[in-house]
Amino acid sequence: MKTHDAPSPFQPSGGRRLGRWAAVLVFLLVLVAAAIVVRLTGRRGEPTPVASGHDHAAAPVADSAMPVLLSDEQARRIGVTYAPVRRGPLGRVVRTVATVNYDETRLKSITARVDGWVERLYLDFTGQSVRIGDPLFSLYSPMLVSAQQELLLAKRLRENVTGGTADAVRGADELLASARRRLLYWEVPAADVAAIEASGEIRKALTFRSPVQGVVIEKAVLGGQRIMAGETVYRVADLSTVWLEGEVFERDLPAVRLGLSVVAEFPALPGEARTGRITYIYPTLDPQTRTARVRVALPNPRLTLKPGMYATFRFAAATEPVLSVPRSALLSTGRRDLVFVRLPDGSLVARDVVLGLATDERIEILSGLAVGDTVVASATFLLDAESNLATLLGGMGNMPGMDISAPASPKPSASTPSLPGSKPPSKDTMKMKMPEDEHAGHQMPDRD
């Protein structure tokens, strides 16, 4: 039976040497995996035994992080930049969506003052423009016919008492003026009243004219229809000025004030920004959306802004001086908000912060930083990954059989031949050694 001496890893046999190294490596990987599984899960029904010299409390947790030390060349290569923590107003911009609505102060309702029948409609569809004095409809009314008769009788009486006493003349004048006022109060145009007096003829239907200008937004009458006194015939909106009403979130309300200038933009009118001012802040808050309505008055000379249009408007809302950092410096994990602070020795340390208001470019820091601190303004995700990786490897280094450290460079000796084509281990190579108390004297069988 053939016997062999203890195998040496530096044995010059090429195939056997590589096979033995592969077997050793597989064995070590199995041991490491088993140690990690036992460390994380423990044995069922009994606590995991604590190995001598190993503190389980030193294992890394999910949110732990170790300082990262980068040279200027490394920072430049991965795109790390720095920014100081500064104190000053944020100058944030508040944006909100809005819709174009009618100016309620310019809405008018045209109603009938007497009962009658519509003989003709001059405004016969919704959306039609109308100006002051344009004819609306002609109306036949027995009340209007009686009023015309009274006017003509009062005019004849005034002519008949021209040579009479002063009291008779004064009474005839008052009666004539009363008949005129009656027709005028029913909004019969003054020119029509004068024409009736001049002609001495009673008209069957009188034409009523518009007292306002704008656009017909509601028509509630048809030709030949009977209408009653007080009934709405038209609703007219003056669109020369419109309201832009938007919803501002509760947290932004302290920045809203009357007279504040806003810039409005409309998807239907790209590139045509409009400027207006806040004219009213509604006194109530929507409990569902936690927003309050804000009104902006906008001139609309060409009637290009139409009620119902969507819009967005923005306004500047300066704040009191606060501590702030660039938004790119913030790293949120879901449970924490942190930034990387550069210490005097050049190391980068993760620090928890409490956030306040935010703008498109900067974010307020309520606690965790001070004026004069320098934070990482870019590549924070890379630093976080590097920090957590160092923490994880540091925790594994305390496990049995794991020595995570930079080994000293080995000194070559005559008794230890080097492998053909091999290089001495670098300082960055991690060394994994087997504990002597568990695997001392273990030898891999020779496979001839």
Could you describe the 3D structure shown?
There is one protein chain. With 448 residues, the chain is of the alpha+beta class. The protein folds into 4 domains: 1-59 and 398-407 and 425-448, no CATH class; 68-89 and 321-392, conserved putative lor/sdh protein from methanococcus maripaludis s2 fold (Beta Barrel), CATH 2.40.420; 93-104 and 239-317, Efflux pump adaptor protein, beta barrel domain (Elongation Factor Tu (Ef-tu), domain 3, Beta Barrel), CATH 2.40.30; 111-237, Beta Barrel (OB fold (Dihydrolipoamide Acetyltransferase, E2P)), CATH 2.40.50.100. The protein has 7 helices and 24 strands. The chain has helices at residues 14-41, 72-78, 142-160, 166-185, 190-199, 380-396, 436-439; strands at 68-69, 82-84, 86-88, 92-102, 107-111, 116-121, 129-130, 135-140, 205-209, 214-219, 226-227, 232-237, 241-249, 261-266, 269-281, 291-299, 310-317, 322-326, 331-332, 337-342, 347-352, 354-358, 362-367, 374-376. The strands form 6 sheets. The protein has a 6-stranded antiparallel β-barrel. A hairpin with a 4-residue loop joins strand 20 (337-342) and strand 21 (347-352). Helix 3 runs antiparallel to helix 4. The relative contact order is 0.17.
Structure summarized in a few sentences:
With 448 residues, the protein is an alpha+beta fold. The chain contains seven helices and 24 strands. Helices cover 23% and strands 30% of the residues.
